[in-house]
TrEMBL record:
Keywords: Ribonucleoprotein, Ribosomal protein. Transmembrane segments: none annotated. This is Large ribosomal subunit protein uL29. Belongs to the universal ribosomal protein uL29 family. It comes from the Bacteria. Pfam families: Ribosomal_L29 (PF00831). The keyword Metal-binding does not apply. It comes from Actinomadura vinacea. InterPro entries: Ribosomal_protein_uL29, Ribosomal_uL29, Ribosomal_uL29_CS, Ribosomal_uL29_sf. PROSITE patterns: RIBOSOMAL_L29 (PS00579). GO terms for cellular component: ribosome. SUPFAM superfamilies: Ribosomal protein L29 (L29p).
Length: 85
């Protein structure tokens, strides 16, 4: 996968960081759509990437809301994976 945001990385972030990243991604998407409408957009693939990043952020936020995955569980899982080496 490309070097963008991954769900695993997002799950370890606190809620306020997720909200900030979501806001930034939405602003970038707006700017990309504006560029596309005016014919100035050079990389149309970036539109798809930003939409997917927004979807990942929403998914992680919804997981937390439903109690499927909590920040503490993900932090513990990440720590356990790092200690296996």
């Amino acid at each position: 996968m490309a070097k963008g945001l991954t769900a695993d990385d997002l799950r370890t972030e606190p809620e306020d960081v997720l909200v900030t990243k979501l806001k930034e991604a939405k602003e970038e998407l707006f700017n990309l759509r504006f560029q596309a409408a005016t014919g100035q957009l050079e990389s149309h693939g970036r539109l798809r990437t930003v939409k997917r990043e927004i979807a990942r952020i929403y998914t992680v936020m919804r997981e937390r809301e439903l109690g499927i995955v909590t920040v503490a569980e993900e932090t513990e899982a990440a720590s356990a994976e790092g200690n296996d080496d």
